[in-house]
Write a structure and sequence with these properties.
763 residues, mainly beta, 14-stranded parallel β-sheet, 6 helices, disordered N terminus
């Protein structure tokens, strides 16, 4: 289990892995997941040579008469017989293949011992059928450019103790065949779902976008899901590519994929809860990269890789909660550094490993990550373990079970015992890689110590996400702000009804309200697709579909932008998605009213007045989020009534308006509050009532102010005369002979206010 920074996480094996986009400064809105079928280009609708069959005899006859460009449509129904339909010496072309397909996806069912036996043929397509029988469904022999696509293989128990092969390659002249977008499973008996037969490998075949699931445990050997060759063909090169497949709950054999030939590639696949490993059992020079491995339930035997032979590379792979993840195993036979010291009697042995390279993998939640020389006598020679991350518990995280000359460099470990051998920090460094979970994957965070920390020179140009590596980080993930182009696969992205997962990343300034306050850049990316296959298309605000998408879609106009986007694969457009982008770059407008009239900056109000302030704000694009104004530390949303008594001098009114996009307008208005004779007179009376002014001073001060007020109302323009009365008033307040009749508080307050009034009158 994971400790400290890592949190245990359950991923249901059949869930759709979510596409998570940044939420600060980025946003994305997508339509709900669409599950409609994305079909191939309907060649039947375009071809003049279309034959519809409803019986076994009609199907056999149509195959016998087929030529390049023929499409044979199987009507809905069951086709059962005691042997395969033979396709022999039938040759289509690249542009005009011979196509044998179900008229309706999955509704033409081949059962019993019916299937297709393809011999000495080329450019034949087997499409859209369901196989439920007890014999090999598709057998290709000495054939090339055969495509088996969008079929469902759910064969019954054959009753054969040795099992059967559901799809089979064979023949020294077989090459460039493709098994894609099929569904395999469930399976209850022994045998392989896909097997390469013969003493010489079929070459350059591709197995991709298939969904392999639910194979029951078998006590005997021989239940591999895919077996790429035999011991007898292990010294030949296959150049097979197994990519973009999903493997779930395959428990029939300790080897989910058994590679028994050379120069093959296993990449970009997702493995979930399989009771077995991917094994380089025989052969040399195989590459394994960009794969995801998960164990999400309590199941023994869930594994990663186990390798034998020469010059294998394992890199950019991700493993979660899997013990003993990568085995650079020992061997029980040594064929020498060039693998030349053998005869046919030792082809079934576990050959000693030479020059394996295991680099830039990420392993989390593992009790034992990379294991060296666990089994047999002959230890690995001249192998490399570099720039890997292993995070877990217990350990050893790097488990060297026998002494070898394996080079360790640039590795990180955290959470358990690092190694059972003495390794310094340049070989294995103990440090928390500071992962963060994004889209169901532990990825690097900005503060990770493994960023730019890789050492050595290894053949690696991108990371597990398909993002470029420059200053290389340790592990499978390169810290990157751009779009990932590969992620763990889900059932929705593989099999007969697969849809291409497209992600949209929106870059701009946003508060997460659905509005952007800046220009916006939209990036679209199709996940888990082979480069050069299919294309992204987009449509902006009901314009024509743009069939060439480059890097970004740039948006600057304010308002709502509607971007529709879709993937076109083999001429057929998959269901479109909608992205709405709202832009508002303009600050909101407002006005503030003072006593019913627009407030004029530096307006003057007497302190005897009451000031009614009202804020009116609007935003015509995104709408208002909030509008407030603040006076003397108090904040109001729309209006307030302010008595101005006691607020002499400059008064600040701070207005702050924010719209839903985050555009802010903030202004300060200043008004002047002036003193008045009326206020001075009103200040005097409370002091008389309280006794702060007593005796003869009471009448003297009162009469003095009343005379001043009378004269002011009689001739307000006579500043000099008005000031004269006020000066006399201050003199009386300050007369030493009157100190016994006035408190110091009354004296100071009245004096200060009167002096302020004098200064105002003189302005």
């Amino acid at each position: 289990m994971l400790k400290r920074k890592l949190v245990t996480r359950i991923i249901p094996c059949l869930c759709l892995f979510a596409l998570c986009l940044p939420t600060v400064g980025y946003a994305a809105v997508e339509s709900p997941v669409i599950t409609a079928e994305a079909g191939l280009t309907d060649a039947a609708a375009l071809s003049a040579n279309v034959v519809t069959v409803t019986t076994n005899a009609e199907l056999a006859s149509a195959i016998s008469n087929a030529a390049a460009g023929t499409t044979i449509l199987l009507a809905d129904g069951t086709y059962s017989q005691n042997g395969s339909f033979a396709i022999t010496d039938k040759n289509g072309t690249e542009t005009n293949p011979i196509t044998i397909k179900a008229a309706n996806q999955g509704q033409a069912i081949l059962t019993g011992r019916a299937g297709f036996s393809i011999n000495n043929s080329s450019y034949v397509v087997i499409q859209g059928m369901k196989f439920t029988g007890t014999a090999t469904a598709v057998n290709m022999n000495n054939s090339n450019h055969i495509r088996v696509t969008k079929n469902t293989f759910a064969l019954a128990d054959s009753g054969n103790p040795s099992g059967i092969k559901w799809v089979q390659f064979g023949g020294s002249r077989s090459h460039h065949n493709r098994i894609d977008h099929n569904k395999f499973g469930p399976r209850v008996d022994l045998g392989q779902m896909i097997a390469f037969q013969g003493n010489v490998m079929s070459q350059y075949d591709v197995i991709e976008y298939n969904y392999f699931h639910d194979a029951a445990f078998q006590s005997q050997n021989g239940g591999e899901t895919i077996r790429v060759g035999l011991s007898g063909s292990s010294m030949s090169s296959g150049f097979t590519t197994i990519q973009y497949n999903l493997f779930v709950n395959l428990d029939s054999d300790p080897e989910v994929i058994s590679v028994k030939s050379g120069q093959n590639t296993v990449r970009y696949n997702t493995f979930i809860n399989n009771k077995g490993q991917v094994t380089a059992r025989h052969g040399h020079g195989n590459s394994y990269y960009g794969n995801y491995f998960y164990k999400t339930i309590d199941k023994a035997g869930v594994g990663g890789f186990r390798i034998y032979g020469n010059d294998h590379k394992i890199y950019n792979n991700y493993f979660e909660n899997i013990p003993g993840t990568i085995h650079i195993d020992g061997g029980d036979y040594d064929a020498g550094p060039d693998g030349s010291q053998f005869d046919s009697s030792v082809l079934t042995k576990h050959w000693r490993v030479y020059r394996a390279q295991v680099f830039n993998n990420t392993i989390v939640g593992s009790s034992s990550g990379i294991v060296v020389s666990k089994s047999y006598t002959y230890t690995p020679v001249d192998s490399i373990v570099a720039n890997n991350i292993v995070v877990g518990a217990e350990g050893p995280l790097y488990n060297e079970m026998k002494a070898t000359n394996t080079l360790f460099e640039g590795n990180f470990g955290f959470g358990g015992v690092l190694s059972n051998m003495t390794r310094n920090s340049t070989e294995i460094k103990e440090a928390d890689p500071l992962h963060t979970v994004v889209g169901g994957v532990y990825k690097l965070s900005a503060m990770s110590p493994v960023i730019d920390a890789a050492v050595g020179n290894y053949p690696i140009v991108d990371d597990i996400d398909g993002q470029p590596r420059v200053n290389i980080d340790v592990g499978a993930d390169e810290y990157h702000s751009g779009l990932p182009y590969r992620q763990p696969l889900s059932p929705a992205e593989v099999g007969p009804n697969a849809l291409t997962a497209i992600q949209a990343q929106v870059e701009g300034i946003t508060r997460g309200t659905g509005w952007f306050s800046s220009d916006v850049r939209v990036k679209l990316g199709a996940l888990n697709v082979e480069e050069g296959v299919g294309r992204l298309e987009y449509q902006h605000s009901n314009t024509v579909w743009q069939t060439v998408y480059t890097d970004t879609i740039n948006l600057s106009a304010e308002g709502t932008h509607r971007i529709r986007y879709r993937y076109v694969l083999e001429g057929a457009a998959e269901p479109e998605k909608l992205l709405e982008i709202n832009i508002d770059k303009t600050s909101p407008e407002y006005r503030i009213l003072a006593n019913g009239s627009p407030l004029i900056d530096q307006a003057t109000f007497s302190d005897s007045e009451t000031l009614t302030l009202k804020l009116e704000a609007q935003d015509d694009i995104s709408g208002l989020d909030r509008a407030t104004f603040t006076v003397s530390g108090a904040t109001y949303e729309s209006q307030t009534v302010l008595p101005l008594a006691g607020k002499l001098g400059e008064l600040e009114i701070i207005v702050r308006i924010v719209d839903n996009a985050g555009n802010t307008r903030e202004s300060i208005h200043r008004v002047l509050v002036t003193p008045t004779l009326e206020t001075l007179l009103s200040m005097l009376q409370p002091y008389i009532v309280s006794g702060d002014i007593r005796g003869p001073l009471e009448a003297q001060l009162t009469n003095s102010l009343k005379q001043a007020l009378h004269h002011y109302h009689k001739d307000a323009s006579s500043i000099e005369q008005n000031v004269k009365f006020l000066v006399k008033f201050v003199e009386v307040l300050q007369d030493p002979s009157k100190e016994s009749y006035i408190s110091s508080a009354a004296k100071n307050s009245l004096t200060a206010y009167t002096e302020a009034l004098i200064a105002h009158m003189k302005q």
